[in-house]
From TrEMBL:
This is Magnesium transporter MgtE. Its main location: membrane. Homodimer. The chain crosses the membrane at residues 292-309, 321-345, 366-387, 393-419. One of its GO terms (molecular function) is magnesium ion transmembrane transporter activity.
Length: 459
């Protein structure tokens, strides 16, 4: 018994006991051990099992118990279809109806339309209607991630009656820390915290303790804006309303955490010029298919850089030493452009740029580029002079660094701002794109100045 306690403390999952009880069909032992675990640990154990072992779990757990596991299951989106196919259709439909509506919708969105219709047909009418209503909302909006399982109260009732309602509805509500107050037309008029209800006298009217300065989000609002609002206000949940202020649902902080992870992964994918980094591709063909389109685009942009260098072939023939500094100039342009890009994209993503004048960012980045370019330009001037013994060559490289860093920094800041203004995801202005564009700019500046001052270099 002591060894078992140690094993549990270390891993939280007694895998050997669970698998042994499944293989030996020891239902009571399995259920006692399994149901004592946190749903996340249940899901972690479940996802690593073979299909034949999982089939026994479906026999040993009720749809309601399986629903708690499924809400914590972290598998690739396309795998939901395979896992549901392992279950009896009626069992799967019952399980989906026991899940919180927003979580069930997330799962159903990964299935084919005929499969969705099939499960909704089998479900009880109430659950099916609730899920259908959520499926109609556009993806990535507040409506698509909200849940309709919340507690609402009327303003013209007492705390005593409100607590009675709360106790009855709490088991199905996703959260009870906030209770929303609506009028006879189901329009949102206020919010009450659970603490306010508990400390208030039983005969107090709800209208007397209602906070009418309630923050809500529109059903069509972008999920990223919703996540930002919950973060700014430190809410555990936020109500979702339509254009007439009818209360439609709520979005909880756990849903927002999923959104933030999804958006961060999406932005990072675009910054790395990869179409999808949510999951690791075990298949090299699949991984190559996702990355190849971006690489082909970057290949053609790189060919423009090569073509530009070719136009300055005469300059290179006269002063071959210029070729030595091409990687230095291009590399510095790419690095400083990526730094400015990161600052701009982060400011847009966090909403900080909405609170300040965007031209301040541009001016600040221009000043940063000027300072960095000036310091790096002076350093490289003396380094090249002492290295190659040619002062004019050092000045050429130093001045090119100065102008390149200024222009590259501005490009890194301006491009995502312009994209944001055009309603295009600024993360599309990815590191590789900024680097390639700045390569073109830096080569043009470098060889343009070299051609202009050729007499000083060959004299």
């Amino acid at each position: 018994m002591e060894d078992r306690a140690v094993e549990r403390a270390d891993s939280h999952i007694n895998t050997s006991l669970l698998i042994q009880s499944l293989q030996n069909e020891e239902i009571d032992i399995f259920r006692n051990e399994f149901l004592d675990m946190h749903p996340y640990d249940q899901a972690s154990f479940f996802k690593d099992l073979d299909e034949d072992i999982r089939a026994k779990i479906y026999l040993y757990l009720s749809p309601e118990e399986m629903a708690a596991l499924f809400e914590n299951l972290e598998i690739e989106e396309e795998d939901y279809k395979d896992v549901l196919a392992e279950m009896n259709p009626h069992y799967a439909a019952d399980m989906l109806s026991e899940m919180y509506a927003d979580d069930a919708v997330d799962v159903l969105n990964e299935l084919d339309k005929d499969q969705v219709v099939s499960y909704l047909t089998i479900m009880d009418d109430e659950s099916a209607k609730e899920i259908k209503d959520l499926l109609h909302y556009e993806e990535y909006t507040a409506g698509s991630i909200m849940t309709t399982e919340f507690v609402s109260l009327s303003a013209n009732q007492t705390v005593r009656s409100a607590m009675y309602i709360l106790k009855n509805e709490a088991p199905r509500a996703e959260t009870i820390y906030y209770v929303y107050v609506v009028n006879d037309e189901k329009k949102l008029i206020g919010v009450i915290s659970l603490r306010d209800l508990i400390v208030s006298d039983d005969d107090t009217m709800i209208s007397e303790i209602t906070n009418d300065r309630v923050v809500s989000v529109s059903v069509g609002e972008d999920q990223e804006e919703v996540a930002r609002k919950i973060k700014d206000y430190n809410f555990l949940a936020v109500p979702v309303v339509d254009f007439q202020n009818h209360l439609l649902g709520i979005i909880t902080v756990d849903d927002v955490m999923d959104v933030m992870e999804e958006e961060a992964s999406d932005d990072y994918s675009k910054l790395a010029a990869v179409s999808d980094m949510d999951h690791i591709d075990r298949n090299p063909v699949s991984a190559a298919r996702k990355r190849l389109p971006w690489l082909i685009i970057l290949l053609f942009l790189g060919m423009l850089t090569a073509s530009l260098i070719g136009r300055f072939e005469d300059t290179l023939d006269k002063v071959a030493i210029l070729a030595v500094f091409i990687p230095l100039i291009a590399g510095m342009a790419g690095n400083t452009g990526t730094q400015a890009l990161a600052v701009a994209v982060r400011g847009i993503a966090t909403g900080d740029l909405e609170k300040e004048n965007k031209w301040k960012l541009v001016i600040r980045e221009a000043g940063t580029g000027l300072i960095n370019g000036g310091i790096c330009g002076v350093l490289v001037t003396f380094i090249v002079y002492f290295w190659k013994g040619n002062f004019f060559l050092g000045v050429l490289v130093g001045v090119s660094i100065l102008f390149t860093l200024i222009v590259a920094t501005l490009a890194g800041a301006l491009i995502p701002l312009l994209m944001h203004r055009m309603k295009i995801d600024p993360a599309v202005a990815s590191g590789p794109f900024i680097t390639t564009i700045n390569d073109l700019i830096s080569i043009l500046i470098y060889f343009g100045m070299a051609t202009l001052f050729m007499s000083y270099l060959t004299g």
